[in-house]
Amino acid sequence: MLTVAHIAAFLDQFAPPKLAESWDNVGLLVGDPLVTVERVMTCLTVTPESAQEAIDEQVGLIVTHHPLPFQATKRITTETVDGRLLWNLIRAGVSIYSPHTAFDSARAGINQRLVTGLGLLDVAPITPTVHVGDPTVTGLGAGRYGRLAEPLSLAEVLTRVKAFLKIDTLQVVGPLDRTIRSLAVACGSAGEFLTPARKLGCECLLTGETRFHTSLEAEATGTALILAGHYATERFGVEALADELRQAFPPLRIWASERERDPLQWH
Ligand SMILES: [Zn+2]
Q1: CA angle (165, 202, 151) in 5-degree steps
Q2: What would the CATH number be for the domain defined by 4-100?
Q3: Measuring CA to CA, which residue among 230, 234, 238 is closest to residue 258?
Q4: How far apart (Å, rounded) are the C-alpha atoms in residues 166 and 7?
Q5: Which fold has domain 107-230?
């Protein structure tokens, strides 16, 4: 019999909570560790659609990349969107675990998968985690950067990004014939890595989305910036996480939400 605690323990090791940012809310957030689980669903975000899928499919545990609840919560009522989601999931007996920034930064986390998928070499974190002497997080941290095996034009980097993320459209700052030798990546909304990436010698940062002013800063400093969408830069990670969980827990039925989608339409 596998319980919520068994899966939470695996996730705590796979994406150690000490890798999470200090503002984050990660780990088992809702539920009963001792309850038996037969079905697990991963998703990027708990939305009305993904929550209903979990309830319809009698899921015991949702592993959501984005935490719910995220902020300190004083009441759970159906009068707010998050309150309604929590109330409905709790009534249906669904536990919630979120690895969020711990998964972004983990050894087999989203950013590591991005740099591997884009073929980067000599990879290192943009901001290393400071836990001196702790082997579980040594060499890890937020974001990743590395060098391309051979220099590519920015246009060629875009082609590679689109192919890996399976997207047709994205936004870019910088001349398409610019030569890119080193690339930094940070999934989701991570414009704060623009300056650190430049200081590390990267000609380009790939992230999901940023503020307009970050795009202006990229242009002014001559750093290429690729915005591939928050959803696209993270959703593939929760599909990979479902694969990891399936390998670790063969008796369970585990899948990535089939009802969640990017709320932004890309044309
Ligand atoms: Zn995100």
Answers
A1: 70
A2: 3.40.1390.30
A3: 238
A4: 29
A5: 3.40.1390
Domains of the chain, by residue range, sit at: 4-100, 107-230
Cβ < 5 A residues, ion ligand 1: 188, 234
Place of tokens 């890309």: 266
Q: What is the pLDDT of residues 4-41, one digit of tens each?
A: 999 999 999 999 999 999 999 999 999 999 999 999 99
- Domains 4-100 and 107-230 agree in fold: yes
Q: What is the pTM of this model?
A: 0.94
Instruction: For tokens 């400093």, name the residue.
Output: 221
* Ligand 1 midpoint to CA 150 (Å): 30
Tell me whether the omega of the peptide bond preceding residue 135 falls within 30 degrees of 0, making it cis: no
Alpha carbons 160 and 173: distance in angstroms, whole number: 16
How far CA 57 is from CA of 50, 164, 260, 261, in Å, comes to: 10, 30, 14, 18
CA distance 92 to 90: 5
**Rounded distance from Cα 177 to ligand 1 centre (Å):** 30
Gap from CA of 63 to ligand 1 centroid (Å): 14
